[in-house]
Amino acid sequence: MEGKIRWGILGCAGIAERAVIPGIRGSETGVVSAIASRTESKAKETAERLDIPKAYSSYEALLEDDEIDAVYIPLPNHLHCEWTVRAAEAGKHVLCEKPIALDAAEAERMANACADAGVLFAEAFMYRLHPRYDKIREMIAAGDIGELRGIHGAFTFNGAANKGNVRFVKEWGGGSIYDVGVYPISAARLVTGLEPEAATCRALFSAEHGDVDMMASGLVEFPNDVSLTFDCGMWAEFRNTLEILGTAGRIEVPHAFIGPQQIVVHKKGERTELEMPTLNTYSLQADAFGRAVRGEASLPFSPQDAVNNMRVVDACLKSARERTRVVL
What we know:
Radius of gyration: 20 Å
Structural class: alpha/beta
Low-confidence stretches: none
Number of strands: 15
Order of helices and strands: EHEHEHEHEHEHEHEEEEEEEHHE
Largest sheet: 9 strands, mixed
Number of helices: 9
């Protein structure tokens, strides 16, 4: 355990139990040392079941533990800002679940609080850490698919029957753009290396789901006359795809954010599947963060990147509500 980053988990969310905790345990740099819940029995039951050494009945108590180096925050979206700031003030490095905040102003506050406290701050977009995205960027830069013409991304699933889901609480940051639309938005920014200029979005707001956007379709305009078209939803058949179109070919990512990790290249009528390693992106995320905490490397993505992504999300939500094009 010497030199390992000691992680505390703020909350017993499904994503923490299902993916992030196993990811940290599978990493080279981290160990899970503590978990907190606002319910003592839940904290103890989860800690015992997952073999986590310490259980705390409040988030504050975990933050007071001097033997915790970093925290992962999988709380509902409206709590991200408060607990990131409080964690920073307690001297903990922060990995916060996406979307980083409710809006860009909150994201800036969080980034500034972490900078002032001298702690690291990152958004948990694990998919970006797989080397296939470096490969995709290299292919685009090398002109392998010619000039970039457009990007299409999709992330949908059908969870509409679960009426008690926190994703359906508008005031808590519910809705499909916050939950899954952030993925194609971040992916387009990643592969282009550019920041959008404007966004237009249309959405299905459902009265039976707290008036959140259960489905949305968007157009995000980038410089150089390149655009992302995307759709996202929580009331549709499952898919998570990305297509990058060029003048001389296209790159297809059939499982862009979760699932199998292949890349398919289409050129001159031929389909080529590139061999990619099968890796746990949650472990890659933990190690990227852990190495940065240990001073061995910089964070792959800056806090400003998280702020910039939220600016696009803000624009998409404003556009969907007001049915207008929003200039960034």
